Amino acid sequence: MDKHIIKSANEAAEKIIEWGESHKIETCFERAERLKPCPIGASGACCKVCHMGPCRFVGRNAEEEARGVCGATLPTVAARNMVRMIAAGTAAHSDHARDMAFTLLAVANGEAKDFKITDVRKLYRVAGILDIEFEGRAVNDVARDVALRFLEDFGRQKGEIYYLRRAPKKTQERWKKWGIAPRGIDREIAEAMHRTSVGVDHEPDHLLTHGLRTALADGWGGCMIATDITDILFGTPRPVKAEASFGIFKEDEVNLVVHGHEPSLAEIIVDVTSEPEMIAYAQSKGANGINLGGMCCTANEVLMRHGIPTAGGFTNQELGIMTGLVDAITVDVQCIMPAITELSKKFHTKVITTSEKAKIPGAMHIEYGEHRAREIAREIVKIAIDNFPNRKTEGSHITDKFPVIAGFSHEYIEYMQGGRWRASFRPLNDAIMAGRIRGVVGLAGCDNPRVPSTGIHRFLATELIKNDVLIVSTGCGSAACGTAGYLTPEMALENAGPGLREVCEAIGIPPILHLGACVDNSRILTIASAMAEEGGLSDEIGGMPAVGIAPEWMSEKAIAIGCYFAASGVPVIFGGESPIGASSEVTRIMTEVWWERFKGPMHFEPDPEKMLALALDYIDRARAALKLKKYEPGKFGAERVLLDMAARREIEKASAKPHIGIY
Ligand code: NFS
After folding, report:
1. Residue 83 C-alpha to ligand 1 middle, in angstroms?
2. What are the pLDDT digits (tens) for 255-312?
3. What is the C-alpha to C-alpha distance for residues 456 and 441, in angstroms, rounded to an integer?
4. Atom 8 of ligand 1, residue of closest alpha carbon
5. Predicted model pTM
6. What spacing in Å lies between the alpha carbon of 110 and ligand 1's midpoint?
7. Residue 559 in contact with residue 40, Cβ under 8 Å?
8. Are 300 and 479 in contact (CB under 8 A)?
9. C-alpha 263 to ligand 1 mean position (Å)
10. Could you tell me the domains of the chain?
11. Which residue CA neighbors atom 9 of ligand 1 most closely?
12. Which of ligand 1's atoms lies nearest the C-alpha of 334?
């Protein structure tokens, strides 16, 4: 390629891509350039659920006239494709959650000696929600009951998954009315696959309604279970300082990267890298220490709980290896580019797969099992150390890195608004009511090489906070912000609108709150439910001045997440060309019909400016419907005084009655 095309909005990433081009090293950016998406499949107009096809629905009147060999119409096919994406995304999160439930069970049964229950308070809180007696009982007995109850959610055939009860009553009523309360997680996924197989469900709305039921099993099932068990086992996050971008890799230390999604092995690796014997071993090989870094959602998990630095999100995984500084990278499941094994051969990096579910040709495989977690972690760390002397000098060494504040669990967000004894969402609701905060946006989902990667996240992040919108971010949305230096309180001073800035300064928080991994989008559901319960805004999730945006999504998991937000009542905007764009009927159902039924339409909008305008419009329309003060920058209504830390400590000292909250 003679002319370099901007492929990432991140300057450090761009430097590595350019270096790669000059060394004839290919990345997802070149592949995206070369492989144009098939326009038929990309818009949902290709059916390949049987072997009479694939049938392609093309032509000017395809929506009305085109038929597959079986007679299926384009809206049926587009709806089926969408439902299959939801099912796959739900399966991914929920299988992750299942493994977390088995780990919790193994810990409770004393079969995973390297782990313990770290957050007993959270265990009790969860037990309380699940109607499990916890007072006066041994912690492991409670944990066993919690794990077994969660496991019931996967195989239940009738009834409802437990956590639906955490949603506001009115939201639950809507789910019942439209028949989308999920019964069991596995059942909904299996039924989605059944209904979308050849010759079964053909009515687009009927199909998509089951899609929403499956998505709710993801949000209020798989994702929420994964979040809660991870907090119970490894601790509920609270603010922590760390660093992001490629400059986190150290020239004089062993660099080991944890990449993927399941947090258990990564947790033990964090521990093992600080064992004195391991450090001494690294020194014996000429390194000054062991430096652990993260990628994608495993990065978010260990960043949130331990301040382990992140090299970034999805599109950074190849670029990280191209620094030439990564001695080993462990991967488990989800969002791992198989390209990294070929790429690693050009460097000295060892790629290690660890999940029994996932192998990659060309990688070493060391299978993880929770019963011997530490032993496996030590084996992996040793491989990285042994590989340190093989490090070649080539590579695109980058020094850029940015400070990051992460660790905003929903429990901490509650705590920061009133302290341990008065934790609540009152100040946030009040700030929204008074117009200091215009609304809340969940900025989530992947980064994508088909756009200047991370660029739309960055654009929306800056524009939204300028417009006094508080951002809660997760997954690679957080990584995109973190590697751009946006996850700091200073960001509020420099860029936030006057109202949001005041709130951030009073509480001492950044205007973009990093909530964790993609499964932690469940924290946003919990926050929205708490805001509804607090009063003064909407009494259900629907109707809140809140929007979910995944501007650079690429994964089926993102689709499942978007749909569970929509079904819960949050308007959702996804970037890129619409994967159901070929059917105006399916587009109408997902926007107009879902809006009427759930107050949660789902849009696909490739233009970043239009995404921003649409999000602000939803927020302003929700404010008007709630009869809140019209948003005007710098002009606020009356509200309570926000408490700063000192005032909160005074109240805590004076208060005799503990709040039942977790902190
Ligand atoms: Ni989410 Fe995490 Fe990133 Fe997208 Fe992949 S890492 S689970 S799917 S790419 S945000």
Report:
1. 19
2. 999 999 999 999 999 999 999 999 999 999 999 999 999 999 999 999 999 999 999 9
3. 14
4. 555
5. 0.95
6. 32
7. no
8. yes
9. 14
10. 74-234 (1.20.1270.30), 246-390 (3.40.50.2030), 421-637 (3.40.50.2030)
11. 446
12. 5
